[in-house]
Amino acid sequence: MAYDIIVIGTGPGGYVCAVKAAQLGLQVAVVEKRATYGGTCLNVGCIPSKALLHASEMYHAAHHLDGLGIEIGEARLNLDKMMAHKDATVKSNVDGVAYLFKKNKIDTFQGTGRVVSAGKVSVTAEDGSAQELEAKAIVIATGSDVAGIPGVQVDIDEEVIVSSTGGIALKQVPGHMVVVGGGVIGLELGSVWARLGAKVTVVEYLDSILGGMDGEVSKQFQRMLAKQGLTFNLGAKVTGVTRTESGANVTFEPVKGGEAQTITADIVLVATGRKPYTAGLGLEEAGVALDNRGRIEIDNHFQTNVPGIFAIGDVVKGPMLAHKAEDEGVALAEILAGQRGHVNYDVIPGVVYTQPEVASVGKTEEELKAQGIAYKVGKFPFSANGRARAMLATDGFVKILADAETDRLLGGHIIGFGAGEMIHEIATVMEFGGSSEDLGRTCHAHPTMSEAVKEAALATFFKPIHM
Ligand code: NAI
């Protein structure tokens, strides 16, 4: 049978594309080499890490309830049970995708998919048996893989030297964890293990953590994490990671020159980025062009240079974020069904799920300066928000950026409890081309943390009430 669409890879990009296309009446098949659906995100990424982030936050909070008048004695950690919660969370999510495939009458093929040519995909099962499928459109949604440390030979054994995959499955809390890379993965997983009792040292090449984030947010975030016990070596380039009998040695040197130093670790988490996963897909033979960073090149409709072959998600340009891949999956399904699919790349929120959370959408101040755009800033701290005081969640602030002349919202940045939820109201107003005045004049329920967003918007176009 010839399908309308075959999707290779069932991560957030691939499975959402398949479901949307089926909803629009197309005949869809998916090819997945893992035993379960959902890709990196559901199996070993976003979802399990959030289970551990939440559980470790609760463990940490249980030690700090005095301020609310709750005395519970010492909370004890049962890591096996915490991991079982994580595994159960993964199972319910990957089972959910299998249910969606069934409900939408999507055919599933277990095995490694390879593009034979436009219109033809071969699927090789684990036992070596192969079959060929045909489709009008092939969608490559194979995601990304751990990039390793650029220029450094590291043997990631997932036991002592781990990527995020091993980092969410440690058998015990390490005495000392060294995190290579102060990006999203390093800080999320670093804070999980710090909360569970590990000493955590982050070694980061740049002068700031979360490179690319708004500078003010990044600075305050680093101070908060340092208060939680994380140690930072910034402007430090890791040049070697080697196994020892009892753990590993990590060597790094100041980027601006100086003495190299070596520290010992029980566990080294390598979190220095991810790379597009295109190996074994037959792209070269099919004539599909890659760019100089190994990403599949696509046009504005997600089509590669070979008609009928499309690509979305981490394997193409843009931020490696599950929700960006999902939106591309929806847009592509709509295009393939004859509709007008579209992704607004200017309004893609980013969230770091630490405690407090860090969330942003749109431009940072640094970007606006670099682009010569005149802007206004409005800020409001959670310390002046009644609900935050009631919850002892006064750390952090909301920052809104708007065009100096038109007041159109250009960006929003939040550090604080629940930032990852609050960011969406800023995103929604931005999606509609709204202004800081629109946001500031929208009635917000009292008392809520979200009132800080409203106040920051008021501060952007005039003055906040509570400051
Ligand atoms: P990242 O790109 O966020 O951070 C990697 C960091 O490693 C950078 O700050 C870089 O300067 C540093 N680095 C590189 N080489 C180094 C060296 N030799 N020595 C010291 N530092 C070095 O990558 P990360 O954290 O691995 O995440 C990978 C991808 O997964 C990202 O695209 C991220 O957006 C995505 N992700 C998103 C999450 C979220 O949205 N909450 C959660 C986890 C991952």
UniProtKB/TrEMBL annotation:
Residues the entry annotates as binding FAD: K50, G113, T142, G143, S144, D314, M320, L321, A322, H323
EC number of this enzyme? 1.8.1.4
One GO molecular-function entry: flavin adenine dinucleotide binding
Q: Where is the active site?
A: H446
**Locate the Pyridine nucleotide-disulphide oxidoreductase dimerisation domain: which residues?**
348-457
Record domain FAD/NAD(P)-binding: where: 3-329
Q: How is the cofactor bound?
A: Binds 1 FAD per subunit.
One GO biological process this protein is involved in is:
2-oxoglutarate metabolic process
Catalysed reaction, written as an equation: N(6)-[(R)-dihydrolipoyl]-L-lysyl-[protein] + NAD(+) = N(6)-[(R)-lipoyl]-L-lysyl-[protein] + NADH + H(+)
- UniProt entry keywords in alphabetical sequence: Disulfide bond, FAD, Flavoprotein, NAD, Nucleotide-binding, Oxidoreductase, Redox-active center
Please tell me whether the keyword Oxidoreductase is annotated for this protein.
Answer: yes
Residues noted as binding NAD(+) in the record, renumbered to the chain: G181, G182, G183, V184, I185, G186, L187, E188, E204, G273
Give the domain of life: Bacteria
GO cellular component terms, semicolon-separated: cytoplasm
Which NCBIfam families does the record match to this protein? Answer: lipoamide_DH
Please share what else the UniProt entry notes about this protein: The active site is a redox-active disulfide bond.
What's this protein's family per the entry? Belongs to the class-I pyridine nucleotide-disulfide oxidoreductase family.
The molecule here is called Dihydrolipoyl dehydrogenase
- Lineage, opening ranks: Bacteria, Pseudomonadati, Pseudomonadota, Alphaproteobacteria, Hyphomicrobiales
